[in-house]
Amino acid sequence: MARSGSVxxxxxxxxxxxxxxxxxxxxxxRELGDKLYARVGGVIELTPGGRRLASAxxxxxxxxxxxxxxxxxxxxxxxxxxxxxxPAVAEFAAEPLLDAFTRRHPRIDVAPRIASSTxxxxxxxxxxxxxxxxxxxxxxxxxxxxxxxxLRYTLVVVAARGHALAGSxxxxxxxxxxxxxxxxxxQADPTTETGxxxxxxxxxxxxxxxxxxxxxxxxxxxxGRGITLAIRHTxxxxxxxxxxxxxxxxxxxxxxxxxxxxxxxxxxxxxAGALHHFLMLPETIRILLARGGGVPAERLRARAPMQxxxxxx
Length: 313
Known about the structure:
By secondary structure, the protein is an alpha/beta fold. It has helices at residues 7-14, 18-32, 48-74, 87-104, 120-125, 193-200, 214-222, 236-241, 270-279, 284-288, and strands at residues 37-40, 43-46, 79-85, 108-114, 131-134, 146-160, 181-183, 208-210, 228-231, 244-247, 254-262, 310-311. Strands 3, 4, 5, 6, 9, 10, 11 and 12 form an 8-stranded mixed sheet that branches. A two-stranded antiparallel ribbon has the order 1-2. A two-stranded parallel sheet has the order 7-8. The longest helix has 27 residues, at 48-74.
């Protein structure tokens, strides 16, 4: 109920009847001497006691899952490593990275999933995933999430060959406000580097067009239908052959970082530590900079409804 917001949704999620949910919550209310929740405007709102119970229950379930997996590992079972990653990591680096990692660790089965970086802390805290790859997260969340950078990258504004502003110096961002911005998943989110830049320039939402992946957005840019902010090393081929040009826009390039985020060492499974170590190896930089590194669709798990590095130039 704490996650779903209603008895009905909780019953569907748990595949039990609504009276069973209500009965269980009623028993908890009597045992704990707390209402646990109240209905406010038709929506369930947890009491302070209810919030603490929800947090404790999440931790208990996470520890139970961790214990089950640790026992399985001790018995020699194949270990499953659940990895959350942003769409950019999935599309540009994940496949060669995870393939190389599993060749080195053949008894670790990697289960990747796409998520927004805003979901990372919740996914890690609930033990839904073991490690998350994308922007740095954490800072006050409980349990504390630790993040360590493994790749620094540069975002540049790119346009089709022959763009009117190609070759111009220090282009004012306002000159591009009326231009269509063609974006990949989540890029319009103001918590991302691209979304933050567009918000600072007051680019209207109707000028932003989001595509299911970055390759689709870039194809439209090459066709001259708009511009985008791209990770420079991922468009180096297009820039070299002249299919794209880099625009000298004031306030760019932007600097970004991909980090590995995990629970503290005492709560971390061994397989997560193995991937973290692999990410920090000097040889891994070649893999991270490889083109065409996306995760095949069949390897991705469905996204749940409503989450000091090296430089790449």
